Amino acid sequence: MNSFGHILRLTTFGESHGPAIGGVLDGVPAGIVIDRNFIQERLDRRRPGQSSITTSRSESDRVELLSGIFEGRTLGTPIGFVIPNTSSRPADYDKLRDVCRPSHADYTYMAKYGHRDHRGGGRASARETACRVVAGAICLKALSDMGIEVFAYTSSIGGIECAKQASQVDPAGIETNPVRCPDYNAAEKMAEEIKKVRGEGDTLGGTVTCVIRGVPAGLGEPVGDKLHTMLGAAMLSINAVKGVEFGDGFAAAAARGSEMNDAFTAAGADGKPSFATNHSGGIQGGISNGADIVLRVAFKPVPTLMRPVEGALASDGRTITLDCGGRHDCCVVPRAVPVVEAMAAISIFDAILLNRSSRI
Amino acid sequence: MNSFGHILRLTTFGESHGPAIGGVLDGVPAGIVIDRNFIQERLDRRRPGQSSITTSRSESDRVELLSGIFEGRTLGTPIGFVIPNTSSRPADYDKLRDVCRPSHADYTYMAKYGHRDHRGGGRASARETACRVVAGAICLKALSDMGIEVFAYTSSIGGIECAKQASQVDPAGIETNPVRCPDYNAAEKMAEEIKKVRGEGDTLGGTVTCVIRGVPAGLGEPVGDKLHTMLGAAMLSINAVKGVEFGDGFAAAAARGSEMNDAFTAAGADGKPSFATNHSGGIQGGISNGADIVLRVAFKPVPTLMRPVEGALASDGRTITLDCGGRHDCCVVPRAVPVVEAMAAISIFDAILLNRSSRI
Amino acid sequence: MNSFGHILRLTTFGESHGPAIGGVLDGVPAGIVIDRNFIQERLDRRRPGQSSITTSRSESDRVELLSGIFEGRTLGTPIGFVIPNTSSRPADYDKLRDVCRPSHADYTYMAKYGHRDHRGGGRASARETACRVVAGAICLKALSDMGIEVFAYTSSIGGIECAKQASQVDPAGIETNPVRCPDYNAAEKMAEEIKKVRGEGDTLGGTVTCVIRGVPAGLGEPVGDKLHTMLGAAMLSINAVKGVEFGDGFAAAAARGSEMNDAFTAAGADGKPSFATNHSGGIQGGISNGADIVLRVAFKPVPTLMRPVEGALASDGRTITLDCGGRHDCCVVPRAVPVVEAMAAISIFDAILLNRSSRI
Amino acid sequence: MNSFGHILRLTTFGESHGPAIGGVLDGVPAGIVIDRNFIQERLDRRRPGQSSITTSRSESDRVELLSGIFEGRTLGTPIGFVIPNTSSRPADYDKLRDVCRPSHADYTYMAKYGHRDHRGGGRASARETACRVVAGAICLKALSDMGIEVFAYTSSIGGIECAKQASQVDPAGIETNPVRCPDYNAAEKMAEEIKKVRGEGDTLGGTVTCVIRGVPAGLGEPVGDKLHTMLGAAMLSINAVKGVEFGDGFAAAAARGSEMNDAFTAAGADGKPSFATNHSGGIQGGISNGADIVLRVAFKPVPTLMRPVEGALASDGRTITLDCGGRHDCCVVPRAVPVVEAMAAISIFDAILLNRSSRI
């Protein structure tokens, strides 16, 4: 339904043009020092209108934290929050009341529920992911206190690939450009491609790579809640995501075992081994091995073009050509980077809490 | 932990060289007619030693159904089952007691639990997937009664690709060759590659494509339990899986929106629209649209080579070269086909049951 | 943690003196017609200051529905809501910052979390139950549309018992008196006892009986989620509840089998049997039999007296006598009646949705 | 459905006259030393035919542990087990195939599922509780290693009450008599009453009191998973249970606040306070306070009399008088004592594991 997680559990609510969106993060341990500005800053990284390459539609997205934090520290009780929907202009959407846009959730929601909130995608709007960023910020803070660093970056847009390997990326370099790609050469090409394709009224997909550094070995549960499963499910719940892979992923499927094995290197002073390579992306048998966790998420291009699209479905069962109008992103991938980080942080923190029961 | 699903819930247990493996499938509706032979046949498709390209290790894998079925029909109560471990030769594994093989779960289980059953992978053995095949067979039967067909096939091995598109595949043609690839030309090349690589003591990965036909529109829950998430989590819990994608998946991330939109075609006599293309793989906004669901799963090559591997970790923290011996598959992909089908069937049946609550 | 239910799931948040309390009701089927006034009316039945026998502290308790309802009908998406805390006077609670009141949650929250929101009970305040009343109102409406009636009443206060049997109670007669007891003679005695005991600065407990009429046979799941369990867990999660019983309950434990059997009477025109008696309270083997469900809930007297209490724990480990001051209910039982109804409605609606999967 | 618990999760399966009953206990931490004899001994305490006052039907109830334990210690992986049904005589039950016994689960299972296993109660048989005793034994061992003692005893049968208070009971004295009552005077009267009532072909109910000593303060989650809820749900899932109360329970509902408050006594050398009284039964605000947890469970008399019962429902909708025959317990309460202990142990161990996430 509308929840994620096991011990740490996020439930979100809200349609994009109702009074507000929001959520409840339950299961947060007591005693985490919370800086409200940090949460708002994370939210600002996701909001529309933040840079030259995102939609010109500007939303302020102010989060109100309603519970679970007292005198600057988490209480152990659920953290409830809302983000009011301020820029709502429902009349903009009247033409969508009886029409289903192709490759959108309009038709599938109708098929499931029999009616829908047609304004701006309703519950299916990517606006919902703002709630995940709020919850993720709390988890990122907790992980940071444990020495765990979570960061993501744009690893491709429209086929233009970031040439830097995940292991080489310095997270400080990601925010230096609006596409959030640490390979500045590629970043420039991506920005140009976005401008060009936007000029044609078309849209672009891309991939986001996420790296989690400093994770202890032992996270993830056997069989049903492998770390692959927990992280993968989190990613696959994000709007427009059509694939996820870990380590060498699909490339590993074309390789030989002798090329893919991550040999141990002798244990260090702390008694913990290292690994000569990281084809596994830090997960073996579904459980973290202490190396960097590396995963890559595929975002399809958004289906709403800035030009008329053919093959929309009218209420009488005929197909029509539809001009959606509105101000949309040509490429959501840069704005999806903080969402991927948030979902990774929620999953890893949940895995850490679950793992507290692994031994008597 | 060791469970899957929401209303329909599979919990499995068992180490590969303990007395037995088994499971409980809870939440199965009453009244499904069950043929015990059908379940055993599905299990036989997964077992070792079934063909020239799998391991020569032969296991009989007889399932004993212990509850939940009475006079040939499901009772609505949990279906408990066990599969005794008959070919157990624990002494074969003595050399692994204090050694962690590279890219295996040996080290990660030790890091998590402090000790492990070292015999044949213990809980991390792919033998556990036999339990999923048993539960999946029950779900496949229920889905078949509703007119829903689930099938999977080998879509690549070691970089050799099946040239047939998912929409063109006739499931009757899959079992005609031991690699389970419906493109017979590719199947032959794959079988040759397996023989060649096995001769070199190395292993191969590959991909399995799964197609689900006849699914009604409306399956999948918004946000937290999208059909992407439910199916993806199921796949990512399978041993050796490192990635999953839906429809055009990672290729969609390199394309433009105008290329990826699935235009509606006018609704037919039943009032339901069709789609001109299926880039979405039958899922939009996380909910099925009635087109074929198509997903692809990446399996890494198994890390146990049939030759010594470097970089194993000894108990004293040094690395050693290890000869695992034993009789292992060079490529598990063909045997993974029924596992993928089983996990897909469990997930889809669960989604169907969840969807019974979508409207008042 | 802070959730109830299986398919239908309520998660609440909020401390009594933070900015707001609220919740998310997830899993509500689409298409239920919702009257916002009805929800507010239910909430008004719970609020303080509603009658001569409740606390003179008046709280307005206005619910804001933020999502999940569109054009008067449920969308199938989560219903998020908040109730702002308007009458917050945190300074009133300064004296409780470092003191644990006896028989309160002050000490147990400190033991669990290491710190707490000391203002008005924080998360442990019965104010949280307002959120359950909001969610319960939505469920009551859905049940009412199916012909299922849920009502509760005060069945004893301070040992004064309601003489009417559950089967004789006309729900229309419950609201005619402020104690919500359908035996008007007892109601008058209860009101007098409350006034007398309040005058002494003491408090009173009591019991609430809940009746659910029109429930179909077949609700409740075998073994783990019996209807006893689902309803009982819901009741035992209410503040100050120390016991729950079904049908003849504890009295049945002192009786013989021959006295407790509910004989069938011949099936009627609809093919459904009736029962000569209802010692079982409408539940047999954990599953509803179609007779009225009857349960009784025990509320202990509130521990905050309107006079100094001995045995409070100071931060230095010594015990002190504490005058809590404030304006508290002498007896919360009448205000708990709508909370019991709400929890019963949530549980029964959840059981109805779960039961949609009982047969293929 | 057929599961209990949150992090620690028991799922059971099996009909009383199928091939076997069994279960899976998932979420057990690694490293608990397990003595298989101890588990079998616990099971023997529940089995039929163990003493002069139980049914003469003797069942051997041998548990087979199939997984999750290796070299005498838990692995952290699920513990699967089966108990074969050896004394099955299905033909004994032919007369029940088309008849529903009054106050049994026969009718409610039919209403729910449309058909049922009529042999010996099928899934609704109390035989299922043997699986809980197995899982409970593992939890009792883990709790014992932590210094937590769980014991239960018969506190009333047919209205004859145990005069000893819970705080006075020495667990060593419970097994000295077949009714398992630590008040030997009452025990004798209970045994006589059972013999007398059995001679009349009738049955008796009773209550079981459970005490948990040595529990740390802080167990139980706010609001949704209070310790009342977790323990209460566990008890209400046991066959024939119709009520549960904590501490003074229903008696508290008739008392005044001044009588029910548990005053703190000054903290001891360990910094932890004690309590002058224990009306709360060790739980305040849903969370343990460190005092003994005390709860009482009401069992109705079994509905199967050893004489003909009126008001059974035949398949044609008429009512008949039915002679069930068979060898049944006159009073199941003494045999329910180990089941109550098992469910308490499972719940408390789960609460301990959940509580590991209460603080950062």
Q: How would you describe this structure to a colleague?
A:
4 copies of one chain form a homotetramer. With 360 residues, the first copy, chain A, is of the alpha+beta class. In chain A, 26% of the residues lie in helices and 21% in strands. Chain A has helices at 36-46, 106-113, 129-145, 184-199, 227-236, 249-252, 257-260, 333-355; strands spanning 3-4, 9-13, 20-26, 64-65, 69-70, 73-74, 79-84, 149-157, 160-161, 206-213, 241-246, 264-265, 274-275, 283-284, 287-288, 293-299, 309-313, 319-322. The interface between B and C is medium-sized, with 20 and 20 residues. Strand 11 of chain A pairs antiparallel with strand 11 (241-246) of chain B.
Offer a few descriptive terms.
360 residues, alpha+beta, five-stranded antiparallel beta sheet, 18 strands, 26% helix
